[in-house]
């Protein structure tokens, strides 16, 4: 940790770590920033500690002098100390628990599924495609996949994007058609009751 900080050294623009958030996620963000700024091993150690706050800062202050000889040692101590804050990583089975709800738009279902899929980095394109399609409600997009199956999730996303765009373009026309149909229906309403009443109650004429 004896490396001198260069005059043009930039500190990473990441949130402070106070000991409550996911320590692995914080470390990953810092290492990405360190790679971008080309920190040396010693500078990594000196800059990493500047991202600490509250509980994390107190933990660092209590370390004995010389406890950290390299950034690799620093990251190991850090992860060990705050291991309890790690998020529970979902497995591929978690993808199968995501189902499209009744009346849920395709776009909303895709967003929910993607949120879970990001937490399962080990899931392959094929697994994600299968899980997504399994609980897709019967509709136009489902029928599209049934006619032309897709094995890659990225390809499903591409087709879904086209479908969602098509629905948006079609919606104004559909609304206009429904409005015209309602107007036509209102114009016919005054006539129909008279015919119905005369047919059902012929005695009322007298």
Automatic annotation (TrEMBL):
Location of the Retrotransposon gag domain = 47-136
Q: Which Pfam families match?
A: Retrotrans_gag
- Record protein name field: Retrotransposon gag domain-containing protein
Q: What species does this protein belong to? A: Sesamum latifolium
């Amino acid at each position: 940790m004896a490396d001198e900080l260069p005059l043009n050294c930039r500190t990473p623009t990441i949130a402070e770590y106070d000991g409550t958030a996911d320590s692995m996620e914080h470390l990953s963000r810092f290492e990405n920033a360190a790679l971008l700024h080309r920190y040396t091993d010693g500078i990594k150690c000196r800059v990493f500690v500047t991202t600490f706050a509250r509980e994390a800062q107190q933990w660092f202050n209590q370390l004995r002098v010389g406890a950290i000889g390299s950034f690799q040692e620093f990251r190991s101590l850090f992860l060990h100390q705050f291991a309890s804050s790690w998020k529970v990583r979902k497995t591929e089975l978690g993808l199968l628990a995501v189902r499209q709800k009744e009346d849920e738009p395709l776009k909303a279902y895709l967003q929910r599924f993607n949120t879970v899929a990001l937490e399962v980095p080990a899931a392959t394109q094929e697994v994600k495609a299968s899980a997504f399609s399994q609980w897709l409600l019967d509709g136009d997009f489902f029928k599209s996949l049934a006619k032309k199956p897709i094995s890659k999730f990225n390809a499903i996303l591409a087709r879904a994007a086209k479908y969602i765009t098509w629905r948006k373009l079609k919606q104004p026309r559909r609304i206009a058609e429904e409005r015209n149909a309602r107007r036509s229906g209102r114009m016919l309403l005054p006539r129909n009751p008279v015919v119905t009443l005369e047919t059902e109650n012929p005695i009322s004429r007298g």
